[in-house]
Please model this.
Amino acid sequence: MRNAGNAPTLIVWIISLVLFIVALVAQFGVARIPEPAATWSWIIGFGLLLVACRVRGL
Model:
């Protein structure tokens, strides 16, 4: 099987990293972030990375 994916661009990687950090901060109680935002931040960040690996130029 050949890998047809591409690495995400730097800006997509940074956005995903920021969303993941928001989720970590909420999980460990460092900052008070509303529950839906905390949960969805890691889901959207991970999904963005998955899409960016498959779509050329993202």
In short: The radius of gyration is 13 Å. The first helix runs from residue 10 to 27. Residues 23 and 29 are 10 Å apart (CA to CA). The chain has a mean pLDDT of 87.
